[in-house]
Protein backbone atom coordinates (compact mmCIF):
# COMPACT_ATOMS: atom_id res chain seq x y z
CA UNK A 1 0.00 0.00 0.00
CA UNK A 2 2.79 2.44 0.93
CA UNK A 3 4.66 1.52 -2.26
CA UNK A 4 1.58 2.28 -4.35
CA UNK A 5 1.10 5.60 -2.54
CA UNK A 6 4.61 6.79 -3.31
CA UNK A 7 4.36 5.65 -6.94
CA UNK A 8 1.23 7.78 -7.25
CA UNK A 9 3.03 10.66 -5.55
CA UNK A 10 5.95 10.41 -7.97
CA UNK A 11 3.58 10.41 -10.94
CA UNK A 12 1.77 13.45 -9.62
CA UNK A 13 4.96 15.41 -9.16
CA UNK A 14 6.19 14.40 -12.61
CA UNK A 15 3.11 15.63 -14.47
CA UNK A 16 3.61 18.48 -16.95
CA UNK A 17 2.81 21.77 -15.24
CA UNK A 18 3.42 20.39 -11.76
CA UNK A 19 6.23 22.92 -11.23
CA UNK A 20 3.63 25.72 -11.44
CA UNK A 21 1.49 24.27 -8.67
CA UNK A 22 1.80 23.49 -4.99
CA UNK A 23 1.38 20.17 -3.24
CA UNK A 24 -1.23 19.89 -0.50
CA UNK A 25 -1.67 16.65 1.44
CA UNK A 26 -5.30 16.29 2.49
CA UNK A 27 -7.35 13.68 4.27
CA UNK A 28 -9.50 11.18 2.41
CA UNK A 29 -12.52 12.48 4.34
CA UNK A 30 -11.96 16.00 2.99
CA UNK A 31 -11.64 14.68 -0.55
CA UNK A 32 -14.65 12.35 -0.18
CA UNK A 33 -16.80 15.29 0.90
CA UNK A 34 -16.66 16.85 -2.56
CA UNK A 35 -15.68 20.25 -1.15
CA UNK A 36 -12.35 20.21 -2.99
CA UNK A 37 -14.25 20.14 -6.30
CA UNK A 38 -15.85 23.44 -5.27
CA UNK A 39 -12.77 25.16 -3.83
CA UNK A 40 -9.93 24.25 -6.18
CA UNK A 41 -11.25 25.87 -9.38
CA UNK A 42 -11.94 29.11 -7.49
CA UNK A 43 -8.51 29.04 -5.84
CA UNK A 44 -6.90 28.60 -9.25
CA UNK A 45 -8.95 31.43 -10.75
CA UNK A 46 -8.49 33.92 -7.91
CA UNK A 47 -4.90 33.21 -6.84
CA UNK A 48 -3.29 31.54 -9.84
CA UNK A 49 -2.26 28.62 -7.59
CA UNK A 50 -2.73 25.15 -9.07
CA UNK A 51 -3.24 23.11 -5.90
CA UNK A 52 -2.35 19.46 -6.43
CA UNK A 53 -3.98 17.24 -3.80
CA UNK A 54 -2.31 14.17 -2.35
CA UNK A 55 -5.20 12.31 -0.74
CA UNK A 56 -4.09 10.20 2.23
CA UNK A 57 -4.92 9.71 5.90
CA UNK A 58 -3.86 12.31 8.45
CA UNK A 59 -0.92 10.23 9.68
CA UNK A 60 0.44 9.76 6.16
CA UNK A 61 -0.17 13.44 5.31
CA UNK A 62 1.92 14.52 8.29
CA UNK A 63 4.66 12.06 7.35
CA UNK A 64 4.75 13.56 3.84
CA UNK A 65 5.12 16.98 5.44
CA UNK A 66 7.85 15.73 7.76
CA UNK A 67 9.77 14.44 4.74
CA UNK A 68 9.32 17.76 2.91
CA UNK A 69 7.42 16.04 0.08
CA UNK A 70 4.48 18.49 0.21
CA UNK A 71 4.18 22.22 0.74
CA UNK A 72 1.35 22.11 3.28
CA UNK A 73 -1.13 19.74 4.88
CA UNK A 74 -4.84 19.99 5.69
CA UNK A 75 -5.74 17.41 8.33
CA UNK A 76 -7.91 16.77 11.38
CA UNK A 77 -6.10 15.45 14.44
CA UNK A 78 -5.13 18.24 16.80
CA UNK A 79 -2.69 16.34 19.01
CA UNK A 80 -0.77 15.03 16.00
CA UNK A 81 -0.82 18.48 14.37
CA UNK A 82 0.55 20.19 17.47
CA UNK A 83 3.30 17.56 17.74
CA UNK A 84 4.15 18.17 14.06
CA UNK A 85 4.60 21.89 14.65
CA UNK A 86 6.44 21.42 17.96
CA UNK A 87 8.94 19.15 16.20
CA UNK A 88 9.67 21.89 13.68
CA UNK A 89 8.07 20.17 10.68
CA UNK A 90 5.40 22.85 10.24
CA UNK A 91 5.61 26.61 10.73
CA UNK A 92 2.27 26.84 12.55
CA UNK A 93 -1.26 25.41 12.79
CA UNK A 94 -4.27 27.40 11.52
CA UNK A 95 -7.84 26.21 12.06
CA UNK A 96 -10.01 26.47 8.96
CA UNK A 97 -13.35 24.70 9.44
CA UNK A 98 -15.08 21.93 11.32
CA UNK A 99 -17.80 19.35 11.10
CA UNK A 100 -18.40 16.26 13.23
CA UNK A 101 -18.01 12.53 13.31
CA UNK A 102 -21.11 10.34 13.29
CA UNK A 103 -21.79 6.69 14.03
CA UNK A 104 -23.15 4.77 11.06
CA UNK A 105 -24.63 1.30 11.24
CA UNK A 106 -27.34 -1.10 10.05
CA UNK A 107 -30.69 0.61 9.95
CA UNK A 108 -32.16 -2.00 12.32
CA UNK A 109 -29.44 -1.07 14.87
CA UNK A 110 -28.77 -4.47 16.49
CA UNK A 111 -26.62 -2.88 19.21
CA UNK A 112 -29.30 -0.26 19.98
CA UNK A 113 -26.89 2.69 19.87
CA UNK A 114 -29.39 5.28 18.67
CA UNK A 115 -30.55 6.15 22.19
CA UNK A 116 -27.09 5.98 23.84
CA UNK A 117 -26.25 8.87 26.17
CA UNK A 118 -22.88 9.52 24.55
CA UNK A 119 -20.48 8.12 21.95
CA UNK A 120 -18.54 6.03 24.48
CA UNK A 121 -21.74 4.32 25.59
CA UNK A 122 -22.66 3.69 21.96
CA UNK A 123 -19.36 1.88 21.36
CA UNK A 124 -19.70 -0.07 24.60
CA UNK A 125 -23.08 -1.32 23.37
CA UNK A 126 -21.53 -2.44 20.08
CA UNK A 127 -18.76 -4.28 21.93
CA UNK A 128 -21.16 -5.88 24.39
CA UNK A 129 -23.04 -7.68 21.61
CA UNK A 130 -19.95 -8.00 19.39
CA UNK A 131 -21.77 -6.47 16.46
CA UNK A 132 -19.66 -6.15 13.29
CA UNK A 133 -17.61 -2.95 13.38
CA UNK A 134 -15.38 -1.58 10.62
CA UNK A 135 -12.41 0.56 11.66
CA UNK A 136 -10.37 2.71 9.27
CA UNK A 137 -7.26 1.23 10.90
CA UNK A 138 -5.02 3.58 8.89
CA UNK A 139 -3.70 6.15 11.40
CA UNK A 140 -6.03 8.75 9.90
CA UNK A 141 -7.72 11.51 11.88
CA UNK A 142 -10.94 9.50 11.81
CA UNK A 143 -9.13 6.40 13.06
CA UNK A 144 -7.48 8.40 15.87
CA UNK A 145 -10.87 9.84 16.87
CA UNK A 146 -12.42 6.37 16.92
CA UNK A 147 -9.62 5.00 19.10
CA UNK A 148 -10.06 7.90 21.55
CA UNK A 149 -13.74 7.03 21.94
CA UNK A 150 -12.89 3.38 22.65
CA UNK A 151 -10.47 4.63 25.32
CA UNK A 152 -13.23 6.84 26.77
CA UNK A 153 -15.40 3.71 26.82
CA UNK A 154 -12.74 1.91 28.87
CA UNK A 155 -12.11 -0.66 26.14
CA UNK A 156 -8.94 -1.86 24.40
CA UNK A 157 -9.33 -2.62 20.68
CA UNK A 158 -6.33 -4.97 20.92
CA UNK A 159 -8.50 -7.39 22.89
CA UNK A 160 -11.37 -7.47 20.39
CA UNK A 161 -12.33 -10.51 18.35
CA UNK A 162 -13.05 -10.89 14.66
CA UNK A 163 -16.17 -8.72 14.93
CA UNK A 164 -13.79 -5.71 14.90
CA UNK A 165 -12.44 -5.29 11.35
CA UNK A 166 -9.64 -2.76 10.66
CA UNK A 167 -9.46 -2.20 6.90
CA UNK A 168 -6.38 0.02 6.61
CA UNK A 169 -8.07 2.19 4.01
CA UNK A 170 -9.75 5.54 3.39
CA UNK A 171 -13.21 6.67 4.43
CA UNK A 172 -14.92 5.65 1.20
CA UNK A 173 -13.49 2.14 1.36
CA UNK A 174 -14.44 1.83 5.03
CA UNK A 175 -18.02 2.87 4.29
CA UNK A 176 -18.22 0.45 1.38
CA UNK A 177 -16.95 -2.35 3.62
CA UNK A 178 -19.47 -1.44 6.31
CA UNK A 179 -22.22 -1.50 3.70
CA UNK A 180 -21.17 -4.94 2.46
CA UNK A 181 -20.91 -6.33 6.01
CA UNK A 182 -23.86 -4.41 7.47
CA UNK A 183 -21.46 -3.19 10.12
CA UNK A 184 -21.05 -0.13 12.33
CA UNK A 185 -18.41 2.46 11.43
CA UNK A 186 -17.27 5.94 12.54
CA UNK A 187 -17.43 8.43 9.68
CA UNK A 188 -17.11 12.16 9.28
CA UNK A 189 -20.50 13.64 8.46
CA UNK A 190 -19.41 15.04 5.09
CA UNK A 191 -18.20 11.70 3.74
CA UNK A 192 -21.38 10.01 4.93
CA UNK A 193 -23.63 12.57 3.27
CA UNK A 194 -21.67 12.25 0.03
CA UNK A 195 -21.68 8.44 0.18
CA UNK A 196 -23.72 6.78 -2.54
CA UNK A 197 -23.70 3.14 -1.43
CA UNK A 198 -26.12 3.32 1.51
CA UNK A 199 -27.60 -0.19 1.20
CA UNK A 200 -29.28 -0.59 4.58
CA UNK A 201 -26.99 1.73 6.57
CA UNK A 202 -28.18 4.76 8.52
CA UNK A 203 -26.70 7.53 10.63
CA UNK A 204 -27.59 6.34 14.13
CA UNK A 205 -25.74 8.57 16.58
CA UNK A 206 -24.33 12.11 16.55
CA UNK A 207 -24.11 15.26 18.64
CA UNK A 208 -21.63 14.24 21.35
CA UNK A 209 -18.91 16.92 21.86
CA UNK A 210 -16.41 14.04 21.66
CA UNK A 211 -17.33 13.78 17.97
CA UNK A 212 -16.21 17.35 17.13
CA UNK A 213 -13.99 17.30 14.02
CA UNK A 214 -11.70 20.29 13.44
CA UNK A 215 -9.68 20.69 10.23
CA UNK A 216 -6.44 22.68 10.31
CA UNK A 217 -3.92 23.92 7.76
CA UNK A 218 -0.20 23.52 8.43
CA UNK A 219 2.43 24.99 6.08
CA UNK A 220 5.50 22.78 5.94
CA UNK A 221 8.68 24.37 7.30
CA UNK A 222 10.60 25.65 4.24
CA UNK A 223 13.93 24.65 5.80
CA UNK A 224 13.02 21.06 4.87
CA UNK A 225 14.25 21.58 1.31
CA UNK A 226 14.54 24.23 -1.38
CA UNK A 227 11.68 22.72 -3.40
CA UNK A 228 9.03 23.67 -0.82
CA UNK A 229 6.85 26.48 -2.13
CA UNK A 230 6.33 28.41 1.05
CA UNK A 231 5.08 31.57 -0.66
CA UNK A 232 2.36 29.59 -2.43
CA UNK A 233 1.47 27.83 0.83
CA UNK A 234 1.19 31.20 2.57
CA UNK A 235 -0.96 32.61 -0.23
CA UNK A 236 -3.24 29.57 -0.06
CA UNK A 237 -3.62 30.03 3.69
CA UNK A 238 -4.63 33.66 3.15
CA UNK A 239 -7.31 32.53 0.69
CA UNK A 240 -8.55 29.66 2.90
CA UNK A 241 -9.08 32.09 5.78
CA UNK A 242 -10.75 34.78 3.66
CA UNK A 243 -14.42 35.81 3.51
CA UNK A 244 -14.59 34.28 0.03
CA UNK A 245 -13.55 30.89 1.40
CA UNK A 246 -16.00 31.29 4.29
CA UNK A 247 -18.87 31.82 1.86
CA UNK A 248 -17.99 28.75 -0.20
CA UNK A 249 -17.33 26.48 2.78
CA UNK A 250 -20.46 27.51 4.68
CA UNK A 251 -22.52 27.37 1.49
CA UNK A 252 -21.52 23.85 0.51
CA UNK A 253 -24.46 21.52 1.10
CA UNK A 254 -25.69 18.09 0.09
CA UNK A 255 -29.45 17.60 0.04
CA UNK A 256 -29.80 20.89 1.89
CA UNK A 257 -27.49 19.89 4.75
CA UNK A 258 -24.38 21.91 5.51
CA UNK A 259 -21.21 19.81 5.57
CA UNK A 260 -18.63 22.20 7.07
CA UNK A 261 -18.61 25.31 9.23
CA UNK A 262 -15.87 27.90 8.59
CA UNK A 263 -14.16 28.99 11.82
CA UNK A 264 -10.81 30.46 10.77
CA UNK A 265 -9.82 33.34 13.03
CA UNK A 266 -8.37 36.59 11.64
CA UNK A 267 -4.60 36.53 11.31
Topology:
Elements: H1 2-14, E1 21-27, H2 28-33, H3 35-47, E2 50-56, H4 58-66, E3 72-75, H5 78-86, E4 94-106, H6 119-129, E5 133-135, H7 141-152, E6 164-166, H8 171-181, E7 184-188, H9 189-193, E8 201-205, E9 212-219, H10 230-240, H11 243-251, E10 253-254, E11 257-258, E12 261-262
Parallel strand pairs: 1-2, 1-3, 5-6, 5-7
Antiparallel strand pairs: 3-9, 4-7, 4-8, 4-9, 4-12, 10-11
Helix pairs in contact: 6-7
What does this structure look like?
The protein is an alpha/beta fold. The protein folds into two domains: 2-98 and 214-262, D-Maltodextrin-Binding Protein, domain 2; 100-211, Periplasmic binding protein-like II (D-Maltodextrin-Binding Protein, domain 2, 3-Layer(aba) Sandwich). The protein has helices spanning 2-14, 28-33, 35-47, 58-66, 78-86, 119-129, 141-152, 171-181, 189-193, 230-240, 243-251; strands spanning 21-27, 50-56, 72-75, 94-106, 133-135, 164-166, 184-188, 201-205, 212-219, 253-254, 257-258, 261-262. Strands 1, 2, 3, 4, 5, 6, 7, 8, 9 and 12 form a ten-stranded mixed sheet that branches. The protein has a two-stranded antiparallel ribbon with strand order 10-11. Strand 10 and strand 11 form a beta hairpin. The radius of gyration is 19 Å and the shape is globular. Residues 1-19 have low confidence and may be disordered.
In a few lines, what is going on in this structure?
With 267 residues, the chain is α/β, with parallel strands linked by helices.
Would you identify the regions where 5 or more consecutive residues have pLDDT less than 50?
Answer: 1-19
Domain module tally = 2
Listing every helix as H and every strand as E from the N terminus to the C terminus, the arrangement reads HEHHEHEHEHEHEHEHEEHHEEE
Structural class: alpha/beta
The CATH C-level name of the largest domain is Alpha Beta
- The quaternary organization reads as single chain
In the CATH scheme, what's the topology name of the largest domain?
Answer: D-Maltodextrin-Binding Protein, domain 2
